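[job 4471] stage=fold_predict status=RUNNING
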Amino acid sequence: MAQTSVFAPQVPMSVGKGKCVEPLPAPLLQATMSNPSVGSANPSASLPALWGYILPALNHVARSPTNDLEKAPAIDVSYHMGIHTAIYNYFTVQTGTTVTTGRERQMARGADLYMHLDKYFTDLARELHLGAPEDDATLIQYLIPCFKRYATSAHYINRLLNYVNRHYVKRAVDEDKGWLTLGDMLDAVVRSIQEGSAREEVLEKLKKKRMQEIQKWGYQDGGSPQQLAQAELCAEAASPLDRVVTLEALALRRFRTEFVEPLLAAPRMRKKRRAGAPPASKHKMGPPEGRLVRAVQQVLEVRGVDEVTRRGLASDLDEMLRAIGVFNTHSLRKKLKFLTRDLPS
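[job 4471] inference complete, writing structure tokens
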């Protein structure tokens, strides 16, 4: 039986013949979370102390019930500054700590806090997955507002903990541990490099290859810096789990791996043919499809659905898949692109 998550907004969006999209209820009023009292304790003294200090803020931003999908519940300015200061002091103390092994060195640079945040987003995405309705016909109406709420929280947390990006993520990218490594680009670039090529020429080819990867996510030459940043965020979210990415991309990537990919996965067929049973028919049925594909078929490909509603839901779903790093070559994204096409006049 599906669980109800306080994180997911309860947004009725029934579609189908004789049904319409119901309006959102009035937004819940969210009080700004004040700075919790820590007494004489030092939040930056250890990872458990730091995590205990920032966790209430994360839960307030990400788990407080709200129907305002465009605005995450806020925290007080003093708490915001306290978190920034605690993280800064924690990294400063860790950097000055004597380390003896490579793992200790990596933890001292902030990998320990980064791993805690990855685990937090993992648990959050799994919680949302467990709260999904069992009925395929209502899955999309749960998924879209659920993702918008999640993405809004991820963006807020990314700004709240931006020092982690500046201190740990940037350094990891400089050490070739980011979403696109030198090894990813090298094979393609090496084939186009001639013997005696200047260093500047090689760097330019690497830069061009990186831009080609970003353009796979919708960026076009001459686009705005905001469009470039959004396309790179999608590329980060599409990266393997061992790549270090910004916190917002970290959250989006976990939404993909823990929530959406299980919905896209086809169920396993375990039935075996018994000895002596007649051979299967030549007209075999197609392979089983995942829940999300079945939901699209039930909700968006049936007759009687208003075209504006159909295209709106298909567009929102396609944009969600793009944001979490599902390539536009995926069969479901191709189907959604078809459903969002302009109707002939």
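[job 4471] summary: The mean pLDDT is 83.
[job 4471] exit 0
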